[in-house]
Amino acid sequence: MIYWELLIGFLKVGCFAFGGAYGAIPLIREIVLSYGWLSEDTLTYMIAISESTPGPIMVNMATYIGSSQAGLLGALIATTAVVLPAFLIILLVSLLMGAVLQNKLVQTVLRGVTPCIIGIIFATGLSMIVGNCFPSGRPDGNALLITSVLAVILFGAKYIFKKKVSPITLIFLAACIGIVVYGI
Q1: Are 65 and 55 in contact (CB under 8 A)?
Q2: DSSP, residue by residue, the chain
Q3: Each residue of 155-177: pLDDT tens digit?
Q4: 63 lies in the same domain as 89
Q5: Of the residues 51, 78, 100, the one at which a domain ends
Q6: Which of 53, 85, 55, 79 is nearest to 65 (CA)?
Q7: CA-CA distance, 156 to 61, in Å (whole number)?
Q8: CA distance 150 to 170
Q9: Do 110 and 94 belong to one domain?
Q10: For residue range 140-156, what is the model confidence (pLDDT) as tens digits?
Q11: What is the mean pLDDT of residues 66-75?
């Protein structure tokens, strides 16, 4: 019986939780408390833990609650139930997108929108660089140094080594340079 309850309960969460993680919390709370799977205090602690661990809150909560109520099989059922609706929706959209993308009008619109999106991303990045390197209108030497070094590495590697630098590598380098420049 518990397996069926986990399936139905977390299918409800997966189907009707909109607005991201914080939008899902009231629905998760209502379902978990109505089935008596956790107390109010335990649920509050689990929400805090689920927020601080990698992965979506809904998946983390479903896995924990399923495991605590019915072991490994319960965790599998609850996790599958909470992600199944989104998976099916994405599958349907991807199936329809193939046919839609073949349409000449859609292709024309996408070709027109692409430069706009590139411009928006570029403007956002530039705004972040300026805001970080010139907070309060005055230059921050350390931020300018880190940004310059990372830009040289990013564009230099492309022209010198003929390959791109991974974003993960840039983040790691930025962290190391930040430790050196700003100190621990």
Answers
A1: no
A2: -HHHHHHHHHHHHHHH--SHHHHHHHHHHHHHHHHTSS-HHHHHHHHHHHHHSSS-HHHHHHHHHHHHHHHHHHHHHHHHHHHHHHHHHHHHHHHHHHHHHTSHHHHHHHHHHHHHHHHHHHHHHHHHHHHHHSGGGS--HHHHHHHHHHHHHHHHHHHHTSSPPPHHHHHHHHHHHHHHHH--
A3: 888 788 788 888 888 888 888 99
A4: yes
A5: 100
A6: 79
A7: 44
A8: 7
A9: no
A10: 889 899 999 999 988 88
A11: 95
Structure-token pair, residue 9:
């309960």
| CA atoms of 14 and 83, how far apart (whole Å) | 6
Quote the domain boundaries for residue 113. 104-182
86's CB contacts (< 8 A; 6+ apart) are: 14
At position 43, the amino acid (one-letter code) is L
pLDDT in the model for residue 154: 87
Q: How many domains are contained in the chain?
A: 2
